[in-house]
């Protein structure tokens, strides 16, 4: 038996080892391919080897974004079992790459969020290139470590910390825009709190309007189309504001080519324009969903599980759209510094914005997709299943929070992190469940148990008084002895009931729907992301400078 167990363990270890080597092989193949392509395609440029190495680091960074950050977009759907892990990875990989390639933009700011003043480099490209390379490598290494620890962190904050640390190492503390950094620090609180509150609010609204109703089917017919329409408005607005802002002029030019349409060409869509388009789509979605739900209610049962199935398809769309918007926006975290290095090497100067060659965009797009496929499953499981239990309704609420929070924050000028919003949404859903459970137990079971304990204590006291009286009798009959034996058994039974009821109350008061150890680990990772990447980037800058000088 022991030999078989050891043999089984050895086989599992070999299988895991083979899988790890396969994943590593694919990752190395991609990185070496990027290195080779960059070196050969830029053969006529001085310092082309340095650019090739930067491209390799950019590929490494892109894969780490895919492994860590993308998990937040599909994890709720996987945790709710609306998508299998494999299907979620395929959908996310396709839409992340599509978002990056289609709407990633032709130009990116070389310094993310303007956190450092590039004039401090005095137009000298060498220290600028070294700083950007150090920032990129530091952010990638930190993301790699966080993914190994199964801690979802913000890739934006990772690259911000890297740029800040490398900038300080290159030109001193005065190079940093501390006002911008203050806003980033504020987002550590703003993002998860906003995400958590909005997710909890939507979950509570769905519970009150549908789940808590006696006739859940009738309530679903009335309210599910409304909730899905709100989601449609939010996601279309979010997608236009964040996902297609880079190609907005092209979209307007395409529409102007149609007869009877004449639109003013603007660089970015306004909130009013985006929300109006979202409203039109929401109305169409409402009519479609209302018809579908009305025709399918005969197949539904009057249960929460049956109502849950109505949110499955909206969740799948949410995962896809969040991935597209994320690819369009966060690809800059991988290729922004790489585009800056490419621009500095090719043009021999320092610029605040740089055009993105197609090959650089492709590195970001395919790197994110590959990183997700190879190393994303672990973090998807962590966010989707290991913080709190999710079903379709809870996951739907989290997806709503992800889109609406970004819309609100962007209009108020508040700095937010998509990662922190998503995780905050998961926490918000879990804590709402705890609150509802405690409220329900307080109103019913706990109070009933307390009254029950008092009744049992009175009964036990009566038995004890009777027992004492019988035991004090000088002359006892056979019936007295029989009753004394019965009373001992009855008192012992009352003690058991009282003890059991007390345990029930204690358990009801202490029940937790959110894993506290997960909260501690994730919050700790958030807090140290910027300082950790800053210190690492500073060390890497001095290392690179020492090698080059």
Automatic annotation (TrEMBL):
GO terms for cellular component: membrane. Pfam families: PHO4. It is found in: Membrane. Keywords: Coiled coil, Membrane, Phosphate transport, Transmembrane, Transmembrane helix, Transport. One of its GO terms (biological process) is phosphate ion transmembrane transport. The chain crosses the membrane at residues 21-43, 49-70, 82-103, 128-147, 159-179, 185-206, 226-248, 268-289, 310-328, 356-375, 395-414, 420-438, 522-544. The keyword Ion transport does not apply. Its main location: membrane. It is a multi-pass membrane protein. Residues 453-480 form a coiled coil. One of its GO terms (molecular function) is phosphate transmembrane transporter activity. Belongs to the inorganic phosphate transporter (PiT) (TC 2.A.20) family. This is Phosphate transporter.
